[in-house]
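User: I'm curious what two different proteins look like when written out as structure tokens. Can you demonstrate?

Assistant: Sure. I'll show them one after the other, since each token string lines up with its own sequence. Here's the first protein:
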Amino acid sequence: MKVRDIFGLNNSLKSLKLLAGDDGLEKEIKDIEVCEVPDGVYWANEGDLAITTGYFIYDGKNDLVTWIEILHEKGAVGLGIKTDRFIKKVSPEALEKANQLNFPLFEIPVYLSYSDIMWPVISKIFDEKNFINFAVEKCNDELLNISSKSYSLKDVTSIMTKYIRNQFVLYAYYNNSFECMMHFKAKNSTIQLVPNIIRENKEKVDSSGGFFCTNIGNIKIWISPLRTQGEIIGYFSLISHDESHTTVDMKLAKLAFPYLIVAIFLEIPWNDLTYRTKDEFIRTILYKKYINRVKLKHDAAYFNIPYNFPRIVWILEMDAKEEVEKVLEHFYEYINRDDVYDSRYILFENNKLICINKITGQVNEEKWYQGLCKEIQLKSSGSKLKIGISKVAESLDRLPVAYDEANFSLEIGEIVEEGNIHFFNNLMVYYVLYEMCRSPVLIRLYESTIKKLREHDLKNSSELVKTLSSYIENNYNVYKTAEDLFIHRNTLYKRLRKIDNILDLNMKESEKRLVLSMSLKLNNLYNNDLYGGDSYD
């Protein structure tokens, strides 16, 4: 398959836009590689077509030029970039380099998922049998990965949408009624039609060992019940306009069925689908227990809560529940004296206060939170406290994400940065790395950099890790770093040369600096008991 062929592989891929390197369109694609870490380009193989969001290259125009050069040297045949997310526009320097190297560089619309690109290409490269085995193995690995965590319905269905190419609909079934939990590319008319098909053929559908099938015009509708302990709690429906992908999609769906059953069972409040209080409704949102967006909007209107409104979630945590109760009066007094924050909802959770604020103006946030901490500590005889603050959530359905961000900031913030006020905005790289920490790619990255320095420090009683950390924190300023470490500049230069020699790299290169910065963050995660005491040393 040639690079030129990808642009006409199907209707979705016709939206890809070639930016540069059109003289390289005759190159053969052997595989497709997602590159989302700086070192990802170094593992590219000859014939790989690379795709990326550009997360690790968006802050420097010359970094993309370096990526193109490395990919070309590795024998990769092209690079696709999702624009309008991290990289708003490809730089003229990158376009010039791609044209110079005859290296196809193309733009991927933000609405196209990786699966929209990967599977058509891979299925074209492999024969049908190998393609099915490849897709099933990849999907199964991702499902097994989330099974070790506390996963939600959204986690499961997001994996399914990456691999299943036909339309599908998921229903919860309770009180003899159907609730659409999620759908992928299905039309409203189809979503409403499937429950009627089930009712008309319920005995056949419920007794089918696999999928019940019926034809509606030129489409086939496949339906399978989801059971737990002998009870049907939902139905999964696959809608196919042709049968070219149906076999693999059924295999993939069956892999996900156990996870869907658990997620449906946990997420629907089966005995009581109404909220008695506004407080209960807000908690339902934060804990990801609402059924779907339509119901969420309906219930928000009932409680007179605006749906589309920017809010933040911040959590104040103290040593004990009793300590929180002691300072409540002063807490309310402080947050009510500032009209920049319009406090709407405050929830209690053991030794935490969960605050959801509608943002109505600008404020020096850190200074505001520092004032809150100072006042509460004065009233609580110096009791220890910390605060985690989320990014802005633009609507109610984003509050669970903001709640997770605030909790993450509480958990990780005090370990990887100083102070007791932790903004998720300052911890975003840690968040990405934390989710991917067990990836062999990141472990290799750490082992080839900071682990080597730690081993040298341990063996020679040196301080190379500390030196590198200070050098990066001081933005690679030799004078400030030497001053912070209380050493002469010549001593610092010797240490930096030693680091370069041990790691066999040049810290003057921006890409190497990014790799070292990431590796130091991995060092903080791997060596602070964040993984149940596991260490990669």
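Here's a second, unrelated protein for contrast:
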Amino acid sequence: MLRKKAPSRLILLIIGGLFISELFSMGMIAFIKSLTYLQLSIIDSFLLISLATPLLYFFSLRPLLNVISEREAEIIHRQQVEVQLRIQTKALETAANGVIITDRDGIIIWANQAFAQLSGYLIEDILGKKPSLLKSGVQSQDFYKNLWDTILEGFVWYGEITNRKKNGSNFISELTISPVLNPSGGIENFIAINQDITERKQAEIALRGSEEKFRNLLDWTFDWEMWMDVQDKVMYNSPSSERITGYHPDDFIANPQLLMEIVHPDDQEIFKRHLIRSHDASVGATNIEYRIIAHNGNEHWISHICRPLFGADSRYLGRRVSNRDVTEQKLAEEEISERNRKEKILTETIHSMQINIARDLHDTVGQNISYMRMKLDFLSGEYPHTEEEIKTELRSMGKVANESYDLMRGTLAVLQTENIADLFRFFTRYAAQVEERSKIKIDIKSAGEPKLLTSNQMRQLFYIYRESLSNIEKHAGATQVNIKLIWSDSSLTLEVVDNGCGIEVDKHKTESHYGLKFMRERAELMNGSISIQSEVGTGTNITISIPYE
């Protein structure tokens, strides 16, 4: 541009231009001789003006006008910049975030009122100081080194920082530090913007604490807690689910159908109906009990309670589910029920057995009494009897009386047994009565898991047992009897072995031997069997086997 040329050069150009214009004008006048001096002066002036005016415009006026125009544009631009600067300065001064400007060495050269309020310092107390004035000691030296390394390399640094106010309390801010570069690319200043997030952080900490408290409450609850949305998607699943089901809590979140898959096949229809009903938002708390198959294949009983969940805006969010493992309770209930059933059967068995034994005892003793009355009538008849006949009859009557006495004494003692349905104790008590009145040593044992017998089986077995001991006591001359009860899965076996004189089995067929016939009939009444093994001089082995009913 011409305005950028040196003024001396412009002056020389103007003088040179005027000289050439005047020289040209005088040269033209010199060729005109007939004109007066006035006319020549007018022509000279006209030529000079015509030639000098373009020179003055191009070399003087136009550059001046350009300079004036540029000056006006520069003034307008400067005014606009000043207005923009005033607006920006006002914006920074009135900004809610604290702003400071430092030089390259970190000396604060400007700060707004928000920063003064944030830090608790007056602006004049801050100017000329470094931001380290606010150090709280929370951040390490490595933290500050990384910060300075970042901004000195020309990059923007962003992060959270804890600073200390003038009153000694800490505040947390989101800090952004931007370097300001000069035209050559060097760093001249730094602008730091602080947003106070102390309350937000405190709220976040409180919220995390609240969430942690309630999550811990849910995570450590003994019951299996779940939150299922309206599409049956598992939103939360407590760790107790793994203890109960063997599946990780996340397995139910990843596979919403897993809950239905582990429900026992026999209970799936009940569970499906419950799910349909439970998704009615108007339905309150509902509960069912069902079984699941755990990961290890074990069966668990679950007490399931679900309640509707609503948001703050009363929007239905799904169901909160509480599942409790009640397997032990169910097993205990079943055990109690089974025990009650057995006790009822036992009570009925004992009562029936006592009545039947008492009836049989009455019948046997009644027969013996009738026999003795018949003998007394015989002795008191009109025909005389010899002394030997009378002694014989009296001995027979005494034997029957003793047998009746021993039978009543032993049977009554047995009926007074604490648990008459305990066959081993029952037989042991009766064996003790036999040992008391005889010289026989009786050893009784039991093998296997005892089963519950019916009252009829108990009564018939007692008759067989009593008859076998009675025969040994009367006829075998034994000193030792070994008795064994063998409980198998399907039947009970009674073995009675003595070391008496033994018998010839072929000569004592059960049809002709009243005692053996009696035992066989009793065994057959129970769909059982009886076998006898014996040799003269080696004792006898009687084995009775009966199936359970």
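A detail about the second structure: The chain has a mean pLDDT of 82.
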